[in-house]
Amino acid sequence: MEEVNISVCMATFNGEKFIDAQIRSIVEQLGPQDELIISDDNSTDSTLHIIAQFDDDRIKVFPDANCQKASANFGRAIGLARGKILVLSDQDDIWLPGKLSRIRELLIEKSTSCVMLDGQMLNNNLILSHSIQQHLNCGPGIWKNINKNTWMGCCMAFTSDLLPWILPIPRYVPMHDSWIGILAELKGSVAFDSTQSILYQVHGNNTSLIERSLQQKLFWRIQLIVALLMRNLRGKRSVP
Q1: Are 140 and 185 in contact (CB under 8 A)?
Q2: Which residues pair with 35 in a beta bridge?
Q3: How many whole angstroms separate alpha carbon 218 and alpha carbon 164?
């Protein structure tokens, strides 16, 4: 089997408005032994048709996910990836040049397990924030990120060494990025890097920016803590 260096893992659902520009910004940075894994959760718009227009063997599309939840859809994409480095991607951002080269440097040359880069937040081409990390007060800390998640999946990458801990992502875990980031800190090493890597599109459907009730936040924290304890007790699983 051909060796895969980097797997970009994208979860899609009705992303026709942004998906073409996002894929173009990604494939420009892929090497010949990299891949873009797209798990589509039964899109009803033209998302899959747009993706099919790309004549690129590195793009691998897996439709009919039936996940009904972003974290489950990302878990499916991650499970299908074959790369030594896995990079998460939303369907509605734009990657900035140099993102993958910086990720390679941090995860290979500096032997980091998981990294979160920075980016700008935009709404209709108007810059809302020049730094996602500053806007969300991002940083390491297990209890910090259980209390309020500051990991943003669209800026994250990690090594395949973490997969035996990450997978499968429990369905009741509220957010895949907090799950991955906290496990990376528990079982490896993490870094928050200031490199500008994406233009994050702010719109009405951003699940990571939706304000939740206090009751919902408390319930999610409990679910996350329970899942982390259970995974730690279970230990690593073997990954083929």
Answers
A1: yes
A2: 7
A3: 28
The CA-atom distances, in angstroms, between 122 and each of 12, 95, 169 are 20, 13, 30
CA 94 to chain centre: 14
Q: Which residues pair with 200 in a beta bridge?
A: 121
Distances (CA, A) of 54 to 17, 24, 51: 16, 9, 6
Distances (CA, A) of 128 to 22, 105, 200: 19, 29, 10
Write the pLDDT tens digit of every residue in 79-99. 999 999 999 999 999 999 999
DSSP notation for 15-45:
-TTTHHHHHHHHHTT--TT-EEEEEE----S
Full-model pTM: 0.92
Q: Are 29 and 89 in contact (CB under 8 A)?
A: no
Q: Measured between alpha carbons, how far is 220 from 21 in angstroms, rounded to an integer?
A: 33
Query: From residue 107, how far is each of 4, 110, 153, 178, 191 by CA, in Å?
Result: 15, 6, 16, 19, 9
CA atoms within 13 A on the CB side of 187: 22
Query: To which H or E segment does residue 156 belong?
Result: strand 156-159
Tell me: pLDDT of 194 over 80: yes
